[in-house]
């Protein structure tokens, strides 16, 4: 019996398998297609997602394939700027806030990583056709074979048309935002001056223009009806649509596809030992570039909790998955729909009113907008105001090595103490941290000592000053579990963690039993 079966081998399934495999668990991946999809779908990811890719060990390999984008424009049909979003070259998670990518390049690197893990088995051309829960796991029927694959838990990353969600009879909450678009991807063969990230809010023809990294570009056109796609997809008609931006001699048309942008959230993300992740759990319009990012957040959230459960923790911990992630997802969907309605307005009179309002608003504000996403919902966290929010990620120096915190000091559960004024955690107070596998570090002032961690960029010192915290505990998915104002409260903070993750039963040995 495997520890976990992952259904679906897109980016979310790959990251889930990689995180669990790196944690030492025996994983099988079941993918219905015989090969990788090898065509672009997602186009964008953020600094939080890049921090995950760095955790997996592929960030440096990815960088040459990416384009760092610093702004995102929304212009009307006359070219007037309506909305502008600004993105930092180095964001709160220590990486650029917006990367443009060609998804097949990302999948190649994730695939290479997963295949290099000896405890992860990948089965391509293996469509799941049935699921049956047992007292200690799930039997999974694959294709037409009579034998079943058995796993203690299943994570279904099988997309918007999820077989798993349908088999479980899980309904979806539909926000009612549904629009047909034609997506046209190009490989650039020569220099071309094309907007890198622009929404053209023209009521006559809404257009989305997005870079897919240094070598590729995407144009998307809203359709009056999905029925028009067979005609509009003809290459000559596509080239005519992009002629104002891209010359035919400077690019190859890679593919043309139709998508209906949807806004859906599954009613249940867990059914016993089966969990939904990524598009199987939620779908959102693409205007914020958060679809794949949201799925990878699911993978991070689930991976460390499944790791604890597989090591003997009460599997009630898995109930915090949906309670934490769903409010976050719904907030992003609501913002995406808000921007989508700006983009897809087809009435010229209403569009003119929209333009006047947004131009006046932008001129009054005088600064580009920043995208801000909420923290997690209730779950594995304490009651402090910072709990459930991302912990900033900065550069530090320790033991003669300088770099981002994760790279220098590792990942997992981390307790960081503000020791700049000489405060330190008593050995007895910190003893539970060793038992729980929590890494304890003290932030120090480089002018006073060579011990502990030096805050090279000032990120952590500013955070402690702004929050008034004496110590902070964050989770392997980079979200804050809790903070304390005095160090004597650290044991209570560690108890919050221990209650959730300490074994209540002897864990099974990873990979024990017979593989079907």
Radius of gyration: 24 Å
What is the mean pLDDT?
93
Give the helix/strand class: alpha+beta
**With helices defined by DSSP (H or I, 4 residues minimum), what is the helix count?**
14
Mind summarizing the main beta sheet?
A: 8 strands, mixed
Instruction: Give the termini separation.
Output: 7 Å
Please state the overall shape, judged from the principal axes of the Cα atoms. globular
Approximately what portion of the residues adopt beta-strand conformation? Answer: 25-35%
* Poorly predicted parts: 510-516
Task: Estimate percent helicity.
Answer: 25-40%
Number of strands: 28
Describe this structure in words.
This protein is α+β, with helices and mostly antiparallel strands and about 525 residues long. Helices cover about 30% and strands about 25% of the residues. Strands 1, 2, 8, 9, 10, 11, 19 and 20 form an 8-stranded mixed sheet that branches. Strands 6-5-14-15-16-13-17 form a 7-stranded mixed sheet. Strands 26-25-24-27-28 form a 5-stranded mixed sheet, with helices on both faces. The longest helix is centred in the middle third of the chain and has 25 residues, at about 320-345. The radius of gyration is 24 Å and the shape is globular. The protein starts with a strand and ends in a 15-residue tail after the last helix. The model is unreliable at about 510-515 (pLDDT under 50).
